[in-house]
Amino acid sequence: MKRLVWNEVAPQGAKALYGIHHYITTATGLPHEMIHLVFLRVSQINGCAHCIDLHTRDLLKTMPFEKVALVPVWAEVPHLFPDQYRAALAWAEEVTLVSETHASDEAYAAASEAFAPKDLVDLTITIAAMNAFNRLGAPFRLPVQVKT
């Protein structure tokens, strides 16, 4: 079934969402690799094929394939990711699954310990934005670059 191309149908909405993406990638103090890591992990949780494809490609520009392949099980291979990256991944999972986790005090305390206040807010905006993109990409079945 052919689905709508959301950003063509609602270009003003797309522009607003892309504005948040622009803020995340140009105006925060978060490392670009961490941003793409969070984008990928959130997309994996949400099952957005387009975003998984896109952010895997982005992450492979700075991270070896072996590490990218293990992102879904990052907690089992703590030696592969720096402390702050692990904190970002943990917070990304907590916020993405907020209906289950309710952003627990323990998770908030851990994230607050790893990030300065502005960076924690920016990280949370990053997570929220990727969740929004996933909630458009998955239902409208945005295509992937990979071809058989």
UniProtKB/TrEMBL annotation:
Give any GO molecular function from the UniProt entry: peroxiredoxin activity
Q: Which InterPro entries match?
A: AhpD-like, AhpD_core, CMD-like
A Pfam short name: CMD
Q: Where is the Carboxymuconolactone decarboxylase-like domain?
A: 13-94
- Taxonomy, superkingdom: Bacteria
PANTHER family linked to this entry:
4-CARBOXYMUCONOLACTONE DECARBOXYLASE FAMILY PROTEIN (AFU_ORTHOLOGUE AFUA_6G11590) (PTHR34846), CYTOPLASMIC PROTEIN (PTHR34846:SF10)
> What NCBIfam families does the record point to?
ahpD_dom
By what name is this protein known?
Carboxymuconolactone decarboxylase family protein
Q: What is the lineage of its organism?
A: Bacteria, Pseudomonadati, Pseudomonadota, Alphaproteobacteria, Hyphomicrobiales
